[in-house]
Amino acid sequence: MSKLSPLVIIVGGGFSGIAAAKKLYEAGISFLVLEARERLGGRVFTKTISEGLYLDLGGQWIGPTQDRMYQLCEEHGLETFETYDQGKNILDLGGKIRTYAGMIPKMDLISLINLDLILKKLEKLARQIDINYPWSHPKAKKFDAVSLDHFIRKNSLTKSCEKVIRVGCETVFACELNEISLLHALFYIRSGTSLECLINIKNGAQQHRIKGGMQPLVEQMALPFQDRIRFNSPVIRIEKTGNEVQVKGNDFEYTAQKIILSVPPPLLAKIRFTPDLPTEKRQLLERYSMGHVGKCFMVYEKPFWREKGFSGQAVADKNSPFQTLFDCSPADGRFGVLMGFTIGNRAKSFFLQDENARKAQLQEILELYFGQDSKHPILYKDFTMSDEIWSSGCYAGIMPTGAWTGFEDAYRKPSNPYYFAGTEASTRWNGYIEGAVLAGEAASLQVIKSLQHD
Ligand SMILES: Cc1cc2nc3c(=O)[nH]c(=O)nc-3n(C[C@H](O)[C@H](O)[C@H](O)COP(=O)(O)OP(=O)(O)OC[C@H]3O[C@@H](n4cnc5c(N)ncnc54)[C@H](O)[C@@H]3O)c2cc1C
């Protein structure tokens, strides 16, 4: 058993935990990061396949208004590049393929008008939400009593419109739409600036990727304090006695004064606290669910679809296992990479099949969309964080109906000596890497302040 006694222990070495650690390091405060996995990054995971070919199996995109992410890239000398976004997009409704340019899918006029009205309505409602106090909206109880699914069914006048708006929302929220409260959806939109910002590639959250992948950034951030990170160290119990806290795992025990918790809500719920966390936080933790997403990559010798005038983007209804497709080729286009998102119930069915069947399904879709050239991939790789015990889902924790109005800010509220980070604790870019960084930094500032007062 270790005798080390840092002032602060950070549980979790994702972007949030490492952003918290960076702040403490800069402030000269002793700390230790305990990370369950053998790597940093958590829900960010870059797999290098060969020289020049890497796949971001977790979070990968950043975009305007995610200011901290751009600052961190600059600070660590990492370059960003534009997501490929030129040429024809594909809309696949019931296997009927249409192509269109720009953001407006090719549909009948009534469906288009209906789609525009729903998007505008969501945008307008989201603009009224105070991200610090979503429960304070005069209609908060009404919005929190229904799911996003309810809102979409109520406002969709045509089947095509409903299908397209569903696919868009499933891709943004990464869950079945009956799992998410309308109030949480509005908060999430506002937290990410606007719906347009969440959906768009250009001027949106999908605008840029980092050359070499996202995980190298968190590794660069942690370089100066490598010796203060302990890997393969899941925290199981946290016990407070007097002014000290014991943090315990299977083969370690550390004592500290303050604890920053930066793990996803369902995993926080599994840590045994003595005395227990405040009742409202415990009850809220039990309500959170994680989304379900799979990323499925087909790699080619070159991005052949670009020469044929395709962007590589597609949107599909339930006849396909993939809600959306994106061009995820490396910056230099040395390889061609198409990535399909399978989300919610589609992901559940998809991952019940063996890998050969999964590959065959993506192959079939790509041939349908991009023709014979897609017949000869050099690699197939898929991945879902839902199968990872130390993530238990993604992109992020989802608030079901009644949670915001029932528990307000119970999740992020500190209860000395415990401080809560992780993207779910962020009011800005909640669910995103930017949110994870902001929440980690905020938790460290709270700890520093509290140490000054002790
Ligand atoms: C497929 C996918 C696509 C995404 N796409 C994007 C995107 O393009 N852009 C974007 O901004 N966001 C995206 N996201 C979301 C983004 O990745 C997350 O919001 C962000 O990485 C969360 O960071 P975090 O530090 O809060 O949590 P995590 O990354 O989950 O870090 C928590 C850490 O805690 C560790 N841990 C858990 N339990 C314990 C324990 N008991 N003891 C010790 N350690 C523990 C975990 O191993 C993990 O390393 C995506 C996520 C996924 C999975």
From TrEMBL:
Q: Gene3D superfamilies from the entry?
A: FAD/NAD(P)-binding domain
Pfam assignment, any one: Amino_oxidase
Keyword flag Oxidoreductase: yes
Binding, substrate: F341
Enumerate the GO terms in the molecular function aspect.
oxidoreductase activity
Cofactor (UniProt): FAD
Quote the record's binding site residues for FAD. S16, E35, A36, V235, E424
In this chain the Amine oxidase domain maps to 15-447
Q: Which SUPFAM superfamilies match?
A: FAD-linked reductases, C-terminal domain, FAD/NAD(P)-binding domain
Q: What keywords would UniProt list here?
A: Oxidoreductase
Reading the lineage from the top rank, the first entry is Bacteria
**Which InterPro entries does the record associate with it?**
Amino_oxidase (IPR002937), FAD/NAD-bd_sf (IPR036188), Flavin_amine_oxidase (IPR001613), Flavin_MAO (IPR050703)
Record's family? Answer: Belongs to the flavin monoamine oxidase family.
Q: Which PANTHER family match?
A: AMINE OXIDASE (PTHR43563), AMINE OXIDASE [FLAVIN-CONTAINING] B (PTHR43563:SF1)
Name-wise, this protein is Monoamine oxidase
Q: Which organism is it from?
A: Algoriphagus alkaliphilus
Identify the taxonomic lineage of the organism of origin.
Bacteria, Pseudomonadati, Bacteroidota, Cytophagia, Cytophagales
